[in-house]
Amino acid sequence: MGRLAGKIAIVTGAASGIGAASAKLFAEEGAQVLAVDRPESAIDTVHVGNRSIEPFAADITGDDAPKKIVAAALDRFGALDILFNNAGVSGRAFVEEMTDEMWDRVNAVNVRGMFRLCREAIPALKERARQKGRARIVNTASVMAFDTDYGLAAYCASKAGVGGLTRTLALELGKFNITANYVCPGAIYSGMTQTNFDKPEIREVWEKKAALRRLGQPIDIARGALLLASDEADFITGHELVVDGGLTLRT
């Protein structure tokens, strides 16, 4: 039996990168997965043929998106064990040049959308924890939750917000046997970063920075999320799991 046998999960940002790898890994480990991403993404095609993954097209920033997403999981699978909030966006601009729209877009997806989906999912997670003894929230932050770089004010602020939100969820939900943790990826080769990391001069710099001398792959983060989503994480909550190949050891 897989580590998530009998579990039902929602994974956002599941059309590519970390989200797609996580949805696939969760399914391989026995979960039924509602894989969520924007309507204009490849969400309706990327998991074709995997009977354990149900695609659901939704922009998590939409007013009614949280209700629709949670309702879809309950309607199709009957319960909810795991909420993996992975959807995220980036953007780069110096603060003096950053518009309100740029700031709002990053924070709307990375923090507000996550908060609203957590809020909507909590009753279902409480019910599942009452029945089965546990439920899980896993959120994707970044090493930029505690680090920084030029032009990343909005991104760093949003990912620090993910950490604060998750720790508070852990405190509030612990008595219901719901854990809340967040994974902090380092330099990962994914759809969001591919354009830069396909340039050899940029890729070599970031590979050299990591103790393991390579870029991370989406599956590396998916495995971290799997740990936090599994029964093995029963006594882990409010935790920041850094999955960066040693990138931040010297910074």
Describe the structure.
With 251 residues, this protein is of the alpha/beta class. It has a single domain (8-187, 217-242), classed as Rossmann fold, CATH 3.40.50. It has seven helices and seven strands. Strands 3-2-1-4-5-6-7 form a seven-stranded parallel sheet, with helices on both faces. The termini are far apart. The relative contact order is 0.15.
Q: What is the element layout, followed by pairings?
A:
Elements: E1 8-12, H1 17-28, E2 32-37, E3 53-57, H2 65-77, E4 82-85, H3 100-132, E5 135-140, H4 153-173, E6 178-185, H5 194-197, H6 200-209, H7 218-229, E7 240-243
Parallel strand pairs: 1-2, 1-4, 2-3, 4-5, 5-6, 6-7
Helix pairs in contact: 1-7, 2-3, 3-4
Number of strands: 7
Distance between the termini: 41 Å
- CATH class wording: Alpha Beta
CATH architecture: 3-Layer(aba) Sandwich
- How are strands sequenced across the largest beta sheet? 3-2-1-4-5-6-7
Multimeric status of the protein: single chain
What best-fitting shape do the alpha-carbon axes yield? globular
Mean pLDDT: 96
SS field, number of helical segments: 7
Count of discrete domains: 1
Radius of gyration: 17 Å
Q: Which regions have little confidence, pLDDT < 50, spanning 5+ residues? A: none
What is the CATH T-level topology? Rossmann fold
Q: Helix proportion of residues, in percent?
A: 40-55%
Q: How would you characterize the largest beta sheet?
A: 7 strands, parallel
Q: What is the CATH superfamily label?
A: NAD(P)-binding Rossmann-like Domain
